[in-house]
Amino acid sequence: MFSWxxxxxxxxxxxxELKRNLLLxxxxxxxxxxxxxxxxxxxxxDVKNLTLGILDMDKSALSRSLxxxxxxxxxxxxxxxxxxxxELKKGLDLAELxxxxxxxxxxxxxxERNSSVIVQALIDGSYPNYALISEGYIQxxxxxxxxxxxxxxxxxxxxxxxxxxIDISATVWYNPxxxxxxxxxxGLFALTIIFFPAIMATLSLTKxxxxxxxxxxxxxxxxxxxxxxGKMLPxxxxxxxxxxxxxxxxxxxxGVPMRGSILAFLIASLLFSAASVGIGLxxxxxxxxxxxxxLLTTILTLTFTFTxxxxxxxxxxxxxxxxxxxxxxPITHYIDVARKVMIRGADFYDVxxxxxMLLLSCIVFYGASILIFKKRIx
Amino acid sequence: MFYKWFNLMRKxxxxxxxxxxxxxxxxxxxxxxxxxxxxxxTDPNFFPLAIYDxxxxxxxxxxxxxxxxxxxxxxxxINEEDxxxxxxxxxxxxxxxxxxxxxxxxxxxxxxANLQIILDGTNSNASEIALNYIHSIISEYNIDLWTARLKGxxxxxxxxxxxxxxxxxxxxxxxxxxxxSLQELxxxxxxxxxxxxxxxxxxxxxxxxxxxLMISPLKTYEIILPKIITMMGVIFMVVFIALFVxxxxxxxxxAGTIWDLFIVTLLYIFTLTGYGxxxxxxxNSLSETILISFLxxxxxxxxxxxxxxxxxxxxxxxxxxSFSPLKYYxxxxxxxxxxxxxxxFMWKDFCSLLTLGVVSFAVGLWRFRKxxxx
Lengths: 378, 374
Fold this sequence. Notes:
heterodimer; A: abc type-2 transporter like fold; 2 domains; 14 helices; 66% helix; B: alpha/beta
């Protein structure tokens, strides 16, 4: 027979055990917060200061002006000057440079003769993402330089500057200043509460198995449902409170808006806390050895999280196949709810699908754990 | 003495092998995990667009054709303003481009035509990059239009123009699968390195079996070193299998020599051992150890350069991350794999990693001895 009293008693025992191990308690409570703050202030929201080497073989006023255009773009950090191509290649080999631009010796001469000149860009391909971003930015700088010289050309030959054929007027919704915190911080809530709760849940159960203190439970009147849920309860509550703390920091200190339904956010936080603890529980039910359980939990949380959850790359920018994987992860839905509610001002009904997915994952993790867990030795 | 060590190492080795599930997990990490990562490539610049073309002219279609992969993905064409609003609100597309009526007419009449763009600021970073690309695409188109106009009217055949020719160095075809599998390999080494070594040490502490070893006629370092050497050996074997996966079925080219790769990887494992030893001396139970390791593992993996360039980090963070061994190993291993560098060539990174390793190992060993002599 299911009894709330016994469940609470198990939870209380777990909490006391946790509290009496002071170092563990401190790390569990403050560790995730520390990580959150570390990443909130330390994780850059945009790629900038890319190291760029310029090999200027022309050394004319025009080539210097191209260098200045790179310098003023705010994207590149120009390293020292380079003497020849080999030196530039060495910089790329040593990963001191992300890219190198070679300005040929007839750069100014050709432009003054009104002809085309080719500027070579050597880009380090060992990080394809950075390479593509670098290429795009180099192209952007070169284009803006081109517009400039064309304009001068017009003035010189036609007497006046010409109308630009197409002008862009951009409107940015929800976040007009491209404040990176709007994107990053709601994602970090999830990062904060995915690892520690899952690992703690795993450890707390495997520890009892490994040290055999689980025998106390085997011969008690506590049912397995009460035992498992009671044991996980303190971790769920701690994770939930941590997510709230991060949320308060983001809204009050970092100025991320809270535009939508706070109820939806709270429910999502609670469900996701439960789900990430549930992942740990699910693994611990199968596995006796702590080291093994930790490694498995890590695979299921860490390796998938960075790539598929949308923390760094928006899910919508992933390819179709990868989006299927990310749809199956609870963390994706939590981040989605957090961003939609906070930034877009979504209300409860806008995010109900994600909430249902979170609820489903909880039911799956806990249901399967309770089904599989056996209250006997061997 | 050697015999004593040998026996202890054998004990550790057997302990590891008899844990079948752990063995399976480690094997999964070194083979399947890496293989699977390489086949799922991520394309962060695949930015979904909606086009609202009220003009339906040749010019507008020409521009749309320039919004192509790998940066953009034109997802839908729409016919109504409301539809556009809805698509952005529910996140189906991240930007909408509107060509107003008379767009091509304005261009033909030498007036400035206006291109309207609505971006979703929720994905701030991606949207900002996309806006930059849009600017650059439109600038190029402007230049083309101007050039055409000049050629048409003035009879001049040439205009000044700088053309950029990109050439991708080292990974010339920008093969993302290679790089992803390598990065997964580094992640696996880091994880196994820290988790396996700390567990091996702390487990004996936790179960109290270390007391048995303490009363044996062995010195402290004789207890700890065989343990560490065995675990380093195990991890190195894992790396060996993983390397096989990376080189054979995935076909990642090894531009440098395999010996350089081994030396660099061994040094990295050694450094991780040092860090693991340090963590193990702080804590008494496995739970503590693991939690403390994760306080380190997360920033090390996220901030060492695999996901964001180190030079984009805030200055303070750049200082902190120079204590991350992965930062140097990343340069070294990528250098050997993709660029064919030798260790002598990359002596700076090698020496930094060596320093981190020797210092952490020495301090860890010293602290370990102290904690047992009390």
